[in-house]
TrEMBL record:
Organism (species): Suricata suricatta
Protein name: Lipid-binding serum glycoprotein N-terminal domain-containing protein
Keyword Transferase: no
Cellular localization per UniProt: Secreted
Annotated SUPFAM superfamilies: Bactericidal permeability-increasing protein, BPI (SSF55394)
Family per similarity comment: Belongs to the BPI/LBP/Plunc superfamily. Plunc family.
One of the record's GO molecular function terms: lipid binding
Residue ranges annotated for the Lipid-binding serum glycoprotein N-terminal domain, each copy included: 29-200
Annotated transmembrane regions: none
Signal sequence region: 1-20
GO biological process: surfactant homeostasis
A GO cellular component entry from the record: extracellular region
Amino acid sequence: MLKVSSLFILLCGLLASSSSQEVLSRVSSQITDALTQGLLGMNFPPALQTIDFQGPLKNIFSLALGQQLTNGDANFEVQMKDLRLFEVFLENSPDFKGVELRMPLAFSIQIKFPALNPYIFHVRTDMKVQLYLEKDVNNRYQLTFGHCRIVPETVWIQSRNFITPMKTFIVGNIERVLRNLIIQNFGAKMCPFINSWLYNLNPQVTNQLISKCW
């Protein structure tokens, strides 16, 4: 588990723009472990399952499978599985006074029909959360979380086990729809959990940042 003092030292170093890479290299694995435990302990997968994949994908599969779809088959199921968090890192932001926490994620999307083998898409993407210090009405520093989002250019999707009659252009259309859904909806579902986990550290983080940095 990440020692809170390591996170304070890391943020202080980055905010002061001194030896940030050296500090990051010392504690990056600890941050990854802490975020992994925190995120996986918040039971967020059920929230992700509420993303509506069926609607946008239904027309594409109807075109792809045509008469092979019965009324029962048309009610396909989409599941997000195997969510994994890779090593996180912090970046100095050129746009605001703070740092950005960057979190690489991977997961799979399985599309299941009653009478057919599941279609599997492997996904990788990065999320970013802005972190910075601000003063409250009592002139005390507090850790604040800014914009949280999926980084669109990092979304990577690879399909697996598609056979006839699935054509290349159909697979491309499915990947395009999934990419748009991930950019628009996945981040919106994930960000409240990430911000909640970080917010729970806020009082301790604030006190230690003040004592170590100012």
